[in-house]
Design goal:
71 residues, mainly alpha, 3 helices
């Protein structure tokens, strides 16, 4: 079920990006796609931090992740 929802979300994002690109142009499409991708990545990162905190690990902030833990 989770993979189905992820695929549905991806298909919706691609479709909406196409519609935005059709009406507002390529630059607006790229801005919209960046916003959606950023939100998704932020939610994913927060979920990973919560999981790590539950397991007793040390939660790192963005600066620490960028400086020492290249992903």
């Amino acid at each position: 079920m989770k993979t189905f929802l992820n695929r549905l979300m991806f298909l919706t994002a691609i479709t909406m990006g196409g519609v935005v690109g059709l009406f507002k142009g390529n630059e607006a499409k790229q801005k919209w796609a960046f916003r959606v991708r950023s939100r998704f990545n932020e939610k994913q990162q927060m979920a990973e931090q919560k999981k790590m905190k539950k397991e007793g690990g040390v939660v790192l902030d963005d600066i620490e992740l960028a400086a020492f833990h290249r992903v």
